[in-house]
Amino acid sequence: MASRDLRTWMAQLEAAGELKRVKARVDWNDEISQVIRRVYAQSGPALLFENIKDHQNTFSRKMFTNGMGTQSRINLMLNLPKDTPSIESIRTIRERMKHPVAPVMVKKGPVKENIIRGKDVDLFQIPVPKWHPLDGGRYINTFFYAITKDPDTGINNAGIYRGVILSKNKIGVLLIPMKDWGITYEKYRAMGKPMPVAFVYGYDPALLGVAGTPVNGPEYDLAGGIRQAPIELIKCETSDIDVPAYAEIVVEGTISPDPATYEIEGPFGEGSGYYGEARKRPVVELSCITHRDDAIFRGALVGTGSVIVDELKSLIGTMMRVVTWNTLESQEIPGVLDVRIGPLSAVKIHKTYQGQPRQIAAALWGSKFAGHHFNALIVVEEDVDIHNTMALMSAMHQKVDFKRDLVVYPLYIGSPIDVSVPYDFRDELAYGASVQNKLLIDATIDWETHPVRAEWGNKRFPPTCHTSKPETEALVEKRWQEYGL
Length: 485
Prior knowledge:
Elements lengths: L5 H10 L3 E4 L8 H11 L4 E4 L10 E6 L5 H7 L8 H12 L6 E2 L8 E4 L21 E3 L3 E5 L6 E4 L3 E5 L2 E4 L6 H12 L3 E7 L3 H7 L7 H9 L4 E4 L6 E3 L4 E7 L7 E3 L2 E2 L5 E2 L2 E3 L1 E9 L3 E4 L12 H20 L5 E5 L4 E5 L6 H10 L10 E6 L7 H11 L6 E4 L18 H4 L6 E5 L27 H10 L6
Parallel strand pairs: 1-2, 3-20, 4-12, 22-23, 23-25
Antiparallel strand pairs: 2-3, 5-19, 6-9, 7-8, 7-11, 9-10, 10-19, 11-14, 12-13, 14-19, 15-18, 16-17, 21-22, 24-25
């Protein structure tokens, strides 16, 4: 795969008929988001808005979105045929991540074509939408990379965390202490120093995938493995952080360790479909912006509820299947056949021992991503299609003893944006995340209560009755036209 940045990715999408340019004048205040919302509902194309109100003469005039909104575009990112089944995409990503490609440092790059410092820094030069009517401002940090560098190891970390424009040179952020950049921030607080941070807008979508999920390993290396080419990095202007040299826009700044500098951030329309609450939170004070000529802003609408698949759910849902499977494999749990991520996450297995579902739950709840995922987890066997909700409900009906097979675990770690958690328990600065418990639904056949029976062909469940004899199926297939159906 050739080295790819946002512009070559957009060209790839356009050549495949997966990109539409919106030339009509649109308002950044709510109108853009409603256009995107309707495109999401139709599983529509990636969009490049080229004519945005108030941004005809700013250094950034265009916004790109929905580049990863469908399975076909995820396949294109991997250079696979558009109709590749999702399970094959998962296997491809898993295999490539086993062979990371280290980044390379360069001295020059397009992101340095323009350098803005000090008082000239102005975030309102960027066409950031107001995504939802009740948002606390224009959220610039939606589909981007927050890059920090661990002061002990010197390793760059890339993550996705929401952030709102507070003024021309300040961004208020949701900084959760249990997340990677929260852990790094605590190290800087212990030293009494501000934490440097760089926000990157617009680059290869492979990096979005690993930045938005709790992968194990350096994100730049893993993204290099997925894209099968090294990421070219360049130093920031005001810190030692390394950023992609072919990014569209990089914003540099620091976060003070002093809580007295915190400002109100929120509310924001979250992926749950509800607004997250406003609190006093850390602030990034900016010192520099570097950008390409005619820079393109990259953003994404989230908060579309449970029915519509938005871009974040599409990409992060795919990548969470990867990291979930990898986590179970790292614990040497056998028999994993498929995984599904959602409000009810699922793992399909070939069951080889009693207690295997509980071990799976323990492995996932003990992992680094337990806070934001797997509030409810169901484990089923190979006869269940985990991507069919009715099939999961049927497995619960047929195989779950609600006294034996429901396990509530008092993990006390959850997501501060989960509205099922009481308001006071969602304070991430008080608790480091939120206070929340987890549920396992063991929908596998219980070997103790369902022993093997000879009359069922030495199986634990009676035979199914939803098929005919093979010869009858063949007969009906042969005569189908005769029936006039």
